[in-house]
Amino acid sequence: MKEESGGWQIEETAQTPMGPVSDVILLDKASLALRKRSVKQGPLAIELAFEGGRATGTLAMGGDPKPVAIDLGGELFADGASSHVVGLLRSRKATPPRSATSTCRSRSLRCGS
Q: By the 8 A CB rule, do 37 and 23 touch?
C-alpha cells in the first residue's frame, strides 16, 4: 500500500495455475471510496474508473477492449484488494462519508455477481 495520486494505492498479486494475476486499486484518501481498479491475468485486462456512483472503463480478453458502463447505485467501498485493508485505513482516521457507514457496497468482477 502506498500514497498515490491523492489516494491509497493497493496492489494484490498472486501466482495461480492460470498464471500471475494483479489487482491494483486506488482509494480516495478521505472517504476510502474506490476510484480506480485494474485487473490483469494473461490475456484478461480490466480497467475501471469509479465516480458519481458509476463504473466506466474497458474489459479485454485478448482482443479489442469492450466498453463497460455500470450504474452502481452509489459509491463503492471495500472492493477488490481494498477489502482487506479498509479497517487499517479507518484506524488512520480516513473515514467514509456518513452514507457509507450505513450502506457498504461491493461488487464482484465475476459474472452474475
A: yes
Question: How much is the pLDDT for 58?
Answer: 97
Beta bridge partners, 34, equal: 27
| Structural domain includes residue 113 | no
Query: pTM of the full predicted structure?
Result: 0.74
Other beta carbons within 10 Å of 6? 10
- Number of domains into which the chain is organized: 1
Distance CA 32, CA 15 (A): 27
Look at residue 111 and tell me if it is in a domain: no
Element at 90 (helix H, strand E): helix 86-91
Q: 63, exposed or middle or buried, with CB in 10 Å at 0-12, 13-18, 19+?
A: exposed
